[in-house]
Design goal:
Elements lengths: L1 H15 L3 H8 L7 E2 L18 E8 L7 H8 L4 E9 L14 E3 L7 E4 L14 E2 L3 E4 L7 H7 L5 E4 L8 E2 L16 E3 L2 E4 L20 E3 L2 E4 L14 E4 L7 E6 L12 E4 L5 E7 L4 E2 L1 H9 L3 E5 L2 E2 L12 E2 L12 E8 L15 E9 L14 E3 L8 E4 L14 E3 L6 E4 L8 H9 L6 E3 L2 E2 H29 L1
Parallel strand pairs: 1-2, 2-3, 3-4, 3-5, 4-6, 5-7, 7-8, 9-10, 10-12, 11-13, 12-14, 13-15, 14-16, 15-17, 17-19, 18-20, 21-22, 22-23, 23-24, 23-25, 24-26, 25-27, 27-28
Antiparallel strand pairs: 28-29
Helix pairs in contact: 6-7
């Protein structure tokens, strides 16, 4: 039985692995007449190329067996404008790719390695001429006489470029797993190409401590950041790092794992984070118990719609932000300062606090949560400026509105996201009788990023289904009554 079970599991796992052709079929809209399904491009397979198609799906694999001259390939590919699939050159004899001058778009995000040029000893130039769109990472490496600088300068904004170990590469130093004894090779580097792995990276447990200053000039990283089993306290050695442009190489874009001495994030110059996946993903797991994000760091992640696969962190308290202004600390509505923009703590508005709610008129960000309970409020207009609410290290619903019997309107026009690790981020419970309806619930949920709303214990979709069923039942009863009335006549 065990053997049969293992065979079944093996078959099931194999069934989950799709070929590139299957991935292309599932991902893209392809004309059945415009496919190229051959394993490689050579004199035997080229007759299967759909010459008249401007959009082609399939795999264009050029390798050591590709024996067609350039002028002949130009004839076959003259109409090609869009490729949906794979473009690979490996161990070919071609000096250029001028037969692809007409190519404008490469849709390749559905496959693992969409565009790559490797070990082409005669390749001198990547002379694409009309490219306007590449939907996956671009790789060109170990091409001994390739000058990739012009290509990089011209198409740098189209895709994440990994052009290295050629005669001339994209601007930037190539990185992989970092060893503390080899950091000096990065001195003076302003751009990094490829993932930076700080793995088993110990700085302070060695004597003397490792000098991290060679990394201080880095401004741009094209790749993921992985901090695995380090003794780092923070990342302030990236003092000039402004831009991280990540890709799908790893499961997350910034991974912080088993760094038990890490207490702060601290990338003071960071301005932009991008990824070729739908959203930038950060994992923070197994760090120091005191690890925290400052309010400005958390706001940066919220504005960039970062997804946290796991976040073992708090919001830093009693910190002075870069703008020199302290955040307001909540200690009761009556004591709260007027004109606060950012508030730290769990705001509680209860019976008798209605007179103070105008103090929240200018509040944009709340780090902790907000609870409105047992008030006579009829609306939430005083929260008209609120954009973000974030609650870390707390399983409670961060935005709670409960037992406000006169509440008729919960419009929050500028709210963009309520973040927490709990299942729900906004909860309404036992408020005004006319307040609960699926339209208001769905509208609120749809305007927010990754924010789940619950009304009186029901999710928006459940409310919507209940209302639809009630409406259908009412129509059925009405139709049945009309039928009975017609029969009686």
């Amino acid at each position: 039985m065990l053997l049969i079970f293992l065979i079944f599991i093996s078959i099931a796992q194999c069934a989950q692995e799709l070929s590139d052709i299957e991935k292309i079929e599932q991902a893209y809209d392809c004309d059945p007449k415009c496919w190229f399904r051959e394993a490689e491009v050579n004199s035997s397979t080229i007759t299967q190329w759909p010459v008249n198609c401007t959009e082609v799906c399939g795999i264009m694999n050029f390798n050591a067996g590709s024996d067609l001259p350039v002028f002949e390939l130009q004839t076959y590919f003259k109409n090609l404008r869009v490729l949906k699939g794979v473009l690979q050159f490996s161990y070919t004899k071609y000096a250029s790719i001028e037969f692809l001058l007409s190519l404008e778009e490469i849709h390749c995000d559905a496959v693992t390695l969409g565009v790559s040029f490797s070990f082409n000893s005669n390749l001198e130039v990547l002379n694409f001429n009309n490219l306007t769109n590449i939907t996956c990472d671009f790789y060109a490496y170990n091409n001994t006489i390739l000058d990739g600088t012009e290509f990089c300068d011209r198409y740098a904004d189209l895709a994440l470029m990994f052009v290295y170990n050629n005669f001339k590469n994209c601007k930037g130093c190539v990185s992989d797993q970092l060893h503390s004894t080899e950091l000096d090779k990065f001195r003076g580097c302003t751009a990094i190409v490829n993932t930076m792995f700080f793995m088993f990276f110990n700085v302070y447990t060695t004597q003397p401590p490792i000098d991290l200053s060679p990394l201080s000039d880095i401004q741009n990283i094209s790749g993921c950041l992985n901090f695995y089993s380090t003794d780092l306290h923070d990342f302030s050695f990236f003092e000039k790092l402004e831009n991280i442009k990540s890709n799908k190489y790893a499961n997350v874009d910034i991974n912080i794992f088993e760094s038990y001495n890490l207490t702060r994030f601290r990338m003071p110059a960071l301005k932009t984070i991008e990824t070729t996946r739908d959203n930038f993903i950060i994992n923070v797991e197994k760090v120091h118990d005191d690890f925290c994000f400052t309010p400005s760091e958390m706001l940066f992640f919220l504005k960039n719609e970062v997804i946290f696969s796991k976040i073992e962190a708090k919001i830093c308290q009693n910190v002075t932000e870069e703008d020199g202004e302290d955040d307001c600390i909540f200690d009761g509505m009556s004591k709260l300062d007027n004109n606060c923009s950012d508030v730290l703590g769990k705001i509680t508005i209860g019976s008798g606090d209605e007179a103070y709610v105008e103090k929240l008129r200018n509040v944009k960000n709340i780090y902790g949560g907000i609870r409105i309970e047992n008030t006579n409020l009829t609306n939430l207009e005083f929260l008209g400026s609120l954009e973000y609410v974030a609650s870390l290290n707390d399983s409670a619903v961060p935005f709670q509105i409960s037992s406000n019997k006169l509440l008729q309107n919960a419009s929050l026009p500028n709210l963009k996201r309520v973040f927490s690790t709990s299942r729900y981020q906004i909860g309404f419970q036992e408020n005004g009788n006319d307040f609960l309806n699926s339209t208001a619930c769905l509208f609120l949920m749809n305007q927010l990023f990754l924010t789940n709303v619950v009304f009186d214990g029901n999710e928006c979709e459940a409310i919507d289904r209940t209302n639809q069923n009630n409406g259908a039942n009412w129509i059925f009863r009405l139709n049945f009554f009309i039928l009975l009335l017609w029969v009686s006549l």
